[in-house]
Amino acid sequence: MKFTDELRQKADPIYEAIFGHPFVRGIAGGSLSGEQLAHYVRQDFQYLTVFCQVYGLAISKSTRREDIEFFNEQIRFILDSENHPHRNFAAVSGHSMKELEQAATLTPTARNYTRHMLYAAHSGTLGELLCALYPCPLTYWEIGLRLKEEVRPDDSHPFREWIEFYADPVVGDICREFASRIDRLAADAGAAERARMEDHYLTSCRMEYMFWSMAYDLEGWPV
Ligand SMILES: Cc1ncc(CO)c(N)n1
Asked: Would you say the CB of residue 51 lies under 6 angstroms from ligand 1?
């Protein structure tokens, strides 16, 4: 079995928990509050900024031109395309993107997740770095596919744009690009590095679940 298939299998209970998470159910049912949506977008805007920074670190660890090109394209994808789902949530929340893009303190969970990615990137190999990033596109691609199938959103669905963005085959292609690189790097890695790759991947899957909870519960710092 491919390394990425093994990882997906090990993380299956976490994926199932994500599909059933009240925020994801709220996207399906169109039943999230303006505050929950705005809290999500404020934090996710900054999360994606760190994601671009980590792609920069991935470039610095790459020797193959095809890899440098892929990471470069992915930075452009975040900057040019991934603002569409944010705009969908912002519009429904009644806030402008200008407002939600203002620097805000990272919540404990957003801080934890972004520091986890930065740590994996700074301390690890390219394979370790990619394993910390991969649950980001993969969980959203699978959420998109499931919600599209389940809801079959039409024009009257408030989150049609969000669902169709992540269910688009382009996101599936990105996931396959990640998987082929991770599988190639895992084949060349020793047992200790592969164990770190798995640990980073599973941690990010758990962080994805917690990110949804952070938004749903309007998490902030207790003091
Ligand atoms: C936290 C998080 N995970 C994944 C994605 C998908 O890119 C996102 N925008 N935010």
From this structure: no
